Amino acid sequence: MDLSGKYNSIAVIEVRIMTLASEGYSVKFNLVSKIMSWRDYYMWNNNFTRAISDDSCALIKESLPKIGIIEWMMAYNDKLTDEIESKFPSQGEWKINIEFEDGTKFESGAEQNFPKDWNSLRSLIEKVTGCSFLLH
């Protein structure tokens, strides 16, 4: 399935990871207004909102199709995770919300099971935000 049109029309993407004790991080990238919001559920005073550079915006748009984030979300929503899921359970959960330019929204997530290529998304987030995106 060709999802290039969907990837090209992502306006906002929000990624959240949380421990079972409701600690973790959330990052929201608005690719239209070029603003990111960081939420630290461990230490609220680490929260911030700031501009995303043109280079970082381009990196996000270029990386998401390579990572296959929409395919993950579709697989998790359809309960077809055998091929994409890590076989090593984690003590946490993830959730991704995407808003497209036409206003439609897509959301997915899971508890204790992360996609195999989660580290690619985590690395992208860390590169753009300059913050660690690992659960403690």
Give a description of the structure:
- With 136 residues, the protein is of the alpha+beta class.
- It has a single domain (4-129), classed as Mago nashi protein.
- Helix content is 29%, strand content 32%.
- The protein has helices at 4-8, 54-67, 69-77, 118-129; strands at residues 10-19, 24-30, 35-40, 48-51, 92-100, 105-111.
- A 6-stranded antiparallel sheet has the order 4-3-2-1-5-6.
- The radius of gyration is 14 Å and the shape is globular.
- The chain starts with a helix and ends in a 7-residue tail after the last helix.
List keywords for this structure.
Mago nashi protein; alpha+beta; single chain; 136 residues; 6 strands
In short, what is this structure?
The chain is an alpha+beta fold. The chain is built from 4 helices and 6 strands. The protein has one domain: 2-Layer Sandwich (Mago nashi protein).
Helix and strand arrangement:
Elements: H1 4-8, E1 10-19, E2 24-30, E3 35-40, E4 48-51, H2 54-67, H3 69-77, E5 92-100, E6 105-111, H4 118-129
Antiparallel strand pairs: 1-2, 1-5, 2-3, 3-4, 5-6
Helix pairs in contact: 2-4
